[in-house]
## 1
Amino acid sequence: MQSHSLGISILRSSQEAQARQFSGQAARTFPFEWRVGPDQTVPLIPGALAYLVGDLIQIVETGDHLLFIATVRHCMSDDEGSPLLHFRGRFSTLAAEWSGSVQKPDAPSLDERRVLVPTER
């Protein structure tokens, strides 16, 4: 397989309008500008919560989907915000609930587990 670069933009929970446009669920209602990735090879969605840039290794057919396997070259993220999720045809987000206090950069102890709770939209 010829090597191809790919970019993944993990959208914020506030970016549902952009997700709907790219999924074909809504007509383009506003102009869209791309952000260029750190190595100038792939376009990324501005304002996303996180970005992954990598090299495509393999494409695997899995039922009615394609699974893209890649090696990550760059990753960037913002510490503030919640990701937008799409599951069973609906958008939702994760609400983080903390018990105890977590001090960076140490990992949380067993008494300070992070629980991610899906929220409905």
## 2
Amino acid sequence: MSLAPWLIGLSLAALVLAVVSAAYILYDIVAYKRQMMAIMKWVWPITALYMGPLALWAYRAMGVSGMRQRDNQDKDSSGQPFWQTVFKGTTHCGGGCTLGDIIGEWTIFIAGVTLAGIALWPEYIADFLLAYVIGIVFQYFSIAPMRGLGLTDGLIAALKADTLSLIAFEVGLFGWMAFSSSLSERSLPTSFIVLWEGKIASVARILTSKRPPSALSSEKTRSLRQTASLVLFQHHLRPDSPVYWFMMQLGMIVGFATSYPMNWWLLRTGIDGDSVRGMDMSVEDTYSKFRGLYDAAHAEGALDAKTKELIHLPVVLALHCEP
């Protein structure tokens, strides 16, 4: 019972789209010198590693266009719709989780660590610890320099900003990992692995054999066939398989979905009001004000816009500014 070709193809396509989306976002940030919170220049490409084209759309809509004025809906102090502020806050949390998960999964795989014969529990432990540490580091180096905090106060602020949202993210991700692991043949009850012809017979062998297994009753055979029909993987998936990372992409999207309500609550109640999300909004607010000043200065008036632009150009060159 090997992996289905359609599943491998789908996994490869999803991974390629994700990498291309992340590469495009990174190129756009560097090439066009996008003005945004420094940490978001890391977060957006990392988000694309699991959201793919959806992250690319969000980046264009919230990361770049998000710096411009928006229509009159429920907005925060930066003029950005509140749901978008929450979305960006959740991507920040997801960035730390994603990096931690990638490092943790490969570390457990290479080291060959298992618990009770499976790698899932060590993966849980490594993923959570690394995601938590990386998330706090992200927050600390964003909050502490901006607010002039020392090491202790900076760490406290970082813990306050990320702990609950990160836990909510990992709950969703770990739940998905448990579900995908349950689709493995190894996850079937041990009563379904029977002695047949003097050897241990797996579900795959029983179902593909022309002769029915005499060791099973007809009732248990029917139960076995129903259970085995849900099996997608012959063994516990490993990080050297594209299907493994496709399943992790889906898990991270589930984690994003479970973390989003938590971030909404944290921001609405003000518990997360001093985090990097709020500072990111202030950067966008500053940009919007400068953009408004520029638009007002170049609006039609006593001089037309073209004349103002011609006056503006030599001034920029004389001051050695970038036109």
## 3
Amino acid sequence: MDGESRVDAFLRSKNEPGYANQGGYGAPARPVRNGVGIAALIFGILAILTSITVIGGVLLGIVAIVLGFIGRSRFKKREATNGGVALAGIITGALGLVLSIVLVVAGAALFFGSGGSDLVNCVKSANGDQAKIQQCNTQFQQGVTGY
């Protein structure tokens, strides 16, 4: 190229006849939108960590699952690059949701299996009398612990 740089040769060729309207580099790339997939994973992890509470595990688990599916949809449309993160959000959200439901069912079974229905009936029959309600609680605790 006789000392001429490639850039200079390219620019010179653009100005020569026969090279007009060569076109550009195409449409500009759309920005990557990974935020939803990341949010799904964060909510999924929080759902697992708060699964001991009904609101935490169930609500955050559902949010994680919904965001995860939105993130996967964006990945399939090539609007996002973190399809695996979105999938992990779906999985952790589902785990948090299921774990929370299992804990609630097990807690209810344990409560009613150890005389919880008797406690509920006793408190209802107390009609707001705090002394009777306290007596109901004492009887329930004695029935559960044996003391």
## 4
Amino acid sequence: MRTRVLTSLVAAAALVAAALPALAAAPAGVQPAGAKTLRSVFGRAYDTLRNRLLAGATVEIVDGQAVRRTTVDAQGQFWFKDVPAGGYIVVLKIEGHGDVVGRLLVSAARPVTIADLDLSKLEAPDEDDHY
């Protein structure tokens, strides 16, 4: 009987020892130090002065040498998923028009960063516009 209890205790101790690394892991939703926070970027591309969506335009976000591209859909919307938080250059490419370049900050504090690109505001901002 004593041998059976001792064997059970040894087996239980082995299970606890195996589980300790998992118990010490970060709680759900907490990333280990040094891990990149991945976020999404959602935006719309349009021209309010000409009352049109910029469907088919290309939007790029650039971080150093890495370039991500997407195409504006028929509703004038675009998405980038799994984007590390940080600063980017955003480029709006429209056929028959020069590239429009700006800055984008993807926040680690928000799951989605909104990046609306109004070509008319980018070309000639009003006095009331605060960018």
